[in-house]
Inverse folding.
């Protein structure tokens, strides 16, 4: 019979709370950075359409590379720990956000933009008040894909000493500690699903608010 | 050293392609079945969406206490991880068919099976291949990870290098995996182009298409 004190002792013994905070810390920094960079790239490519092919091809190639290969190849340059993990997560998460931002902005009906110009909005105002809000539903579905990617990469960070729940899973496998494997793997899965569900709710809200009627 | 790398490469390729093959021959029928049964479809697709959000490392870890370690559990882990993109993309492709096309094919008296064979499948090749390509790349990257659960392959060289901080070993392990990833992406594009494309459907203005036209 498992009682509550055993569970609490187990969680304390395996540092699961600290591991979870590390995981969420890395995850949130990575996702914020990739949203920031991805949106900038997407908007930039929207303004400079000629470059879009080259940039998206490069990002597509990065996307095909195996995560672990990239993580270990960066060791000579960035060392071990959180820095390379966050760097690689951002590298992977940029493409969905940039691509969806670019597609979303291009799919805004040209009528709205013309109306904005007629109302006397300059290019920047039209971008921030008309085009970006209309593209938001597409952008947020890109962010949702990125959230899933980032969660996966951050978990793998445990292999290169970044901490996080990946480290607990690795410990579990190496010691063949079944309870630890179950608890940490299921907990990572639940965390990923929680973030995915949150993004889904935001996506649906924005779809209702800004989506096509 | 070279022998070790070649041996690991062989195991890695086996892992990747066996699990990819299994997931294709099981995933596509699953998608076809869910096409026929609406209830089953919602269960399968919901399950797919759920699994897709879970990190690969968690999937690989869960396999250990249930099925042990080694080559076969590793194939199972990769298979579970990559089944979902194939099922989902195939299902999306098969359902996203122009209704006009379906109506007219019913109108000329095609049976359900013939519609599936001659209308639904040819029209969903792009989507199916997108799924297979994604699954291939994912399977290559999960195959590295399964070295942790004793599958062997290039991943074991990488992790040995990581444990002893031997940069050369890390390079020997990771560069072949990158080449395999690029090879898979290109080879599936070529297979799709050669055997599963109809010239009148292809968008000739796409840059990658222009490149393929030049090569072949």
């Amino acid at each position: 019979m498992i009682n509550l004190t055993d569970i609490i002792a187990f969680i304390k013994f395996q540092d699961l709370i600290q591991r979870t905070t590390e995981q969420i810390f890395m995850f949130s920094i990575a996702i914020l950075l990739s949203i920031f960079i991805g949106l900038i790239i997407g908007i930039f490519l929207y303004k400079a359409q000629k470059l879009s092919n080259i940039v998206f091809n490069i990002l597509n190639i990065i996307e095909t590379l195996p995560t672990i290969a990239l993580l270990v190849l960066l060791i000579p340059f960035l060392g071990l720990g959180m820095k390379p993990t966050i760097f690689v997560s951002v590298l992977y998460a940029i493409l969905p956000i940039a691509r969806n931002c670019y597609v979303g902005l291009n799919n805004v009906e040209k009528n709205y933009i013309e109306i904005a110009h007629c109302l006397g909005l300059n290019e920047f105002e039209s971008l921030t008040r008309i085009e970006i809000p209309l593209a938001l539903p597409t952008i947020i579905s890109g962010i949702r894909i990125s959230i899933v990617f980032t969660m996966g990469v951050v978990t793998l960070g445990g292999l290169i000493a970044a901490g996080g729940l990946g480290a607990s899973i690795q410990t579990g496998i190496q010691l063949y500690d079944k309870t630890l494997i179950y608890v940490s793997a299921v907990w990572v899965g639940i965390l990923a699903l929680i973030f995915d569900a949150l993004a889904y709710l935001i996506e649906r809200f924005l779809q209702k608010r800004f989506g096509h009627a | 050293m070279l022998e070790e790398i070649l041996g690991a490469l062989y195991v890695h390729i086996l892992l990747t392609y066996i699990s990819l093959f299994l997931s294709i021959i099981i995933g596509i029928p699953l998608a076809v079945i869910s096409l026929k049964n609406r209830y089953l479809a919602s269960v399968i697709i919901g399950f797919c969406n759920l699994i897709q959000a879970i990190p690969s490392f968690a999937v690989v870890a869960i396999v250990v206490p249930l099925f042990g370690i080694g080559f076969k559990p590793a194939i199972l882990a990769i298979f579970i991880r990559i089944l979902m993109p194939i099922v989902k993309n195939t299902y999306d492709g098969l359902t996203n068919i122009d209704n006009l096309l379906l109506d007219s094919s019913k109108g000329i008296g095609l049976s359900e099976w013939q519609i599936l064979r001659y209308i639904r499948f040819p029209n969903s090749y792009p989507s199916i291949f997108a799924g297979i390509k994604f699954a291939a790349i994912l399977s290559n990257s999960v195959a590295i990870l399964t070295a942790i659960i004793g599958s062997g392959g290039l991943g074991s060289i990488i992790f040995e290098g990581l444990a002893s901080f031997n940069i050369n070993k890390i390079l020997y392990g990771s560069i072949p995996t990158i080449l395999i990833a690029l090879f898979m992406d290109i080879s599936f594009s070529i297979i799709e182009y050669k055997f599963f494309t109809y010239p009148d459907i292809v968008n000739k203005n796409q840059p990658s298409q222009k490149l393929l036209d030049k090569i072949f």
